[in-house]
Structure formats: C-alpha cells, structure tokens
TrEMBL record:
SMART domains: MUTSac. This is DNA mismatch repair protein MutS. Pfam families: MutS_V. Keywords: ATP-binding, DNA-binding, Membrane, Nucleotide-binding, Transmembrane, Transmembrane helix. GO terms for biological process: mismatch repair. The chain crosses the membrane at residues 246-270. The keyword Transmembrane applies. It comes from Labilibaculum antarcticum. One of its GO terms (molecular function) is mismatched DNA binding. It comes from the Bacteria. Gene3D superfamilies: P-loop containing nucleotide triphosphate hydrolases. InterPro entries: DNA_mismatch_repair_MutS_C, MutS, P-loop_NTPase. Residues 340-525 form the DNA mismatch repair proteins mutS family domain.
Length: 535
C-alpha cells in the first residue's frame, strides 16, 4: 500500500513538472517571510507600488512551481529582492540543470519537499522572525505546583493522605492548563512543522551536491535536535480516531494537567528557540532555496522560450531578442537594443505600449532574481527598478491623480542621482494636467531621469516630446492598421516616432456622427497649420 502511494505521488510529480499550479494562493501567508526579512544587504526591495504596476501577484502565480510552503515563501522573497551581486549563480545553475535532467533525483527531492506543504508550514518563519510569548511574572507558581504534584506522587505510597493534596493541586492545575491552551495553539502548528523541516533538511543534506549550498548546515540541524524531545509534546494534538486512542489521549491529558507539562515545556522550548533563531533560519533557507531551484527548473521546462540573461555590471544596456510578456498567451515578441540611452514610445491606446513596458520590467526582475528571462536572448543591467504605470486617486487621503503621480515621480528623481543604475518605467507622464505644462514638465523630468547611467522606458501621446527628446532617447512606436470597418494591431515595436494619427478615423469607424468627424478633422488641420506657423 505504501509503495503504491509513493508510486502514485511520483507519477503526479512527474506529470506536473513544467506545468502551472492548480491551487489557490494565500498571499497574506506567502508574503509573511518577505515582510519580516532584513533586506539591508540587497540592492533593492521591490516596492508594493512597482509590484502593483507590473501585476506581480499574477506573475508570481505563473512563476511559482514550488512543492512546499517554505519554498513558496522563499521564492516570493527572492523575486522581490534584487541582489547586489551574482555570487550564487554558478551553483544555482548547476543544481537547476541537474533537477531538469535527472528526473529520479528531482522526484526524490520533490517527494521530501511535499511533506512541508501544510498551511501550518507558513508559520515556521515566525519562529525566527517574530517575538515570542513572554513568561508571566507568576510563572514560578506553575513550577511550584508541578513540583508539588511530583513530590506527592512519589510520597503517596508512604502517606495515602497525600491523595487530597494531589486532588487539590489537580483542580488548580486545570485552570493553568486551560489558560495555556490558547498559548499552545499559537505555536503548536509552527513547532510541529519545525520538526518536519528538520527531518526534510536532514534528508536533503545527504546529497553531496546539495551540501554545497551550506556545508556547515549540520550544526544548525543539531541545534533543532537539542530541543526535539521537548517539542514532541506539540505532536500530541493530532486527530483522535478510535476508542483506544480516545482513552490513551484522555490519560495523557490527565498527566499533562497533573504535572503542568504543556506550559512548562512550551515556555522552555520558546526560551531555547529564542537563542537559536539564526540556526533555524539557516535550515529554513536551505530547504527554501532547494525548492526554489526545483521551481525554476520546472519554469524553464514549461516556458517555450526563455534564456539565461547576460547581466551587465558596469554599463547600462538592454538588448532583447524575441522578448515577450510571460502572462499574455501567444504574446507577440519584439526586439530592442538600448545602449546607454533611454526609450520613448509613442502609439495609440491598445497598440501595445504599456504591455511592452511591463514586459521590460518583468524580464529585468526575473533576470536579476531567478536568472531567467522570457526571450531568446537578453542583456540587462544590474539596476533598481521604479515605476509609475498604474496610478489612481487616493480619496482616503484626499490626493488627486496628479498629486499621486507627482509624488511617485519625485521619488524617482530622488533615486536617480544616488550613484546606482536605475530602470524607470513610466506610462503617459503627467497625464493628469494640461497639455502645455504636461509637455514642458515631462521633457524636464525625462531629461533628468535619463542621466547617471539610468534607463527610462516611457510612453506618451505627446508627439512634441519626441522632438524635444530625440537627442537623449531612442524613439520607437507601435501602430495600428485602420481599414474601412476595423482597427487591427500587430503589436510590433517599430523604430522612429509615430507619424500616422488615426484617432479621429477610429471614431468614424465606430459610428460617430458625420458632423463631429468633420469638425474634428477641420480643427486638427487648423491646429497643425498654427503649429507650423509658430515654428
């Protein structure tokens, strides 16, 4: 029976490799490790604003092929933490290649990792990231009551009257036992999962190639072993099935009440774990990293076109061949070559400008974090990533769209001159204000952002900006094909600025009255003539 279960599990794991997960995602729990982690040594922690702009949650659901909740939390953190160097890439790639090519090895590792796929596993990170429950000042009373129970049991054969002492202590202990149940429930899941984590880590560490991740992990595993026996009490809260188990559980519960085992062991374990946070995190990170690498191997097998990027440490360039947005089915691919310059995109609505900007941002993120880009080939800079794509009014704080955009772009300006390369992604800069000021302020801001080895990708409907920025920005555009009765988009990136204006023609195709179309055309021609005269 056990053999059949293992065989079935292996078949399921093998069939799911390279495929999307078919499960719900609890981001509140997935983010728990990331939210509490120290990111001071990283180049950048992606902001919630940038993640919202780039549809990060949807991206994560596509990228995540992990087998454990620990791996899921670790991968989420990895994707939001831009590293300052590439020191682990060689070993990571070696292991990813082995996971992709050696199915027997991978299936063994995956089978172990699935043991950490319970919801309670999400809370292991709290054991080394969050504060513990402190002992109440009157905790010595419980020690005294426990000692009294032990002494009474030992002396009972010599003095039967001590049974009354035991009954009295037992009644008092019931109150403390029930008080501690709430405390126990807060930690029973995470601590019992910590025991499973220790066993899984121990198994994974038997493989010589995985030992390279942390050669001294044995010391950290031993630390968890030191408190293992005390933690076994947390495994006794399992489901009860059958009359015999009910009787056994009841007897055990009476013993725990009589000697106050649960509160004494709980606070004892917490005290020891509090001094071993670093070791617990090392074991957690080891298992999480292994699972994340399996996930990356699965992602690469599943994605039809992907590549390992060339990461440019000393110059700012983005070169992409057949680059695409991974969340768009059958996405049109594009090529881009940017050397020490920024990019200004023009084009009508729905032509592909914003999608392309998002594709650039996503590929730089995945390239820097999981060494994987969705393109035939890709060269990217090591840069911080900032965006102003999806902006809305903040009615709760009485902030208009324009004011929100002003604050977002001010943050970009502050980061632009800090000495580290940045990638700035903007969609329709200052579209919340009037034309003259929008163009004037937009030109000044975009010129400023493009300095100091920064790269800017910005879209605009303002053709005037293409003339003002042609010396600082590479000009590209997206265009549509307008026929008598339809508008078709090819979503192909083209060099130069947009020359055809089809907005009024699109109104005509969609049945706008003739008098509106005629007046709009006449006004457009008059404005063009005035512009020529002014120049």
């Amino acid at each position: 029976m056990i053999f059949n279960c293992k065989k079935k599990q292996a078949e399921q794991l093998k069939a799911s490799f390279g495929k999307l997960k078919d499960e719900s995602f609890s981001f509140e729990l997935i983010e728990k490790y990331f939210r509490n982690k120290d990111h001071s040594e990283s180049l950048q922690m992606l902001s919630d604003k940038t993640c919202n702009d780039l549809d990060f949650d949807e991206l994560f659901m596509f990228l995540d092929r992990t087998n454990s909740k620990i791996g899921q939390q670790y991968l989420y953190n990895k994707l939001r933490e831009i590293p300052s160097d590439s020191k682990h890439l060689e070993l990571d790639e070696e292991l990813i290649t082995q996971f992709a090519s050696d199915s027997d090895f991978r299936l063994e590792i995956q089978a172990e990792l699935t043991k950490l796929d319970q919801r309670e596993t999400y809370y292991i990170s709290t054991l080394f990231q969050e504060g513990y429950l402190e002992q109440p000042k009157w905790f010595f009373v419980m020690r005294l009551l426990s000692f009294t129970s032990i002494l009474s049991v030992l002396l009972l054969p010599f003095n039967l009257k001590l049974v009354f002492v035991l009954i009295g202590v037992f009644i008092i202990n019931i109150c403390f036992h029930l008080w501690n149940k709430k405390n126990l429930s807060s930690y029973s899941g995470s601590i019992s999962q910590l025991l499973i984590l220790k066993r899984v880590a121990n198994h994974l560490f038997q493989h010589e190639n995985l030992k390279k991740i942390n050669p001294i992990l044995t010391e950290s595993i031993k630390v968890i072993d030191q408190v293992r026996n005390s933690m076994l009490i947390f495994k006794l809260e399992s489901k009860i099935e059958g009359d015999f188990q009910v009787i056994l559980w009841s007897l055990l519960e009476l013993i725990k009440i009589l000697f106050l085992l649960e509160p004494l062991l709980l606070f004892g374990v917490l005290k020891r774990l509090d001094t071993r946070r670093e070791e617990v995190e090392k074991v957690y990170s080891f298992v999480g990293r292994v699972d994340a690498l399996v996930s990356i191997a699965s992602l690469r097998v599943g994605a039809e076109v992907n590549c390992i990027p060339e990461i440019c440490e000393e110059n700012s360039r983005i070169i992409g061949d057949q680059i695409y947005h991974p969340l768009i089915f059958d996405c049109v691919t594009n090529q881009i070559v940017v050397n020490d310059k920024s990019v200004l995109l023009t084009g009508s609505n729905m032509s592909g400008k914003t999608t392309f900007i998002r594709a650039i941002g996503i590929n730089v993120i995945t390239g820097l974090t999981i060494n994987t880009c969705f393109a035939k080939s890709m060269a990217i800079p090591r840069a911080r990533i900032h965006s102003a794509i999806r902006i809305s009014d903040d009615l709760m704080n009485d902030k208009s769209y324009y004011f929100e955009e002003v604050l977002t772009i001010k943050d970009m300006i502050d980061n632009a001159g800090k000495g580290t390369a940045n990638l700035f992604l903007l969609d329709e800069i200052f579209k919340g204000t009037n034309t003259i000021e929008r163009i004037s302020a937009g030109k000044a801001v975009l010129s400023s952002l493009a300095k100091n080895e920064n790269i800017v990708f910005v879209s605009t409907h303002d053709i005037e900006l293409t003339d003002l920025l042609e010396d600082e920005y590479e000009l590209y555009h997206f265009s549509e094909i307008v026929s008598d009765k339809s508008v078709d988009f090819d979503y192909k990136l083209k060099e130069g600025k947009l020359k055809n204006r089809n907005a009024i023609r699109i109104l005509q195709i969609n049945g706008y009255p003739d008098e509106i179309i005629e007046e709009a055309i006449a006004l457009a021609e008059e404005l063009d003539r005035n512009k020529v005269l002014e120049s």
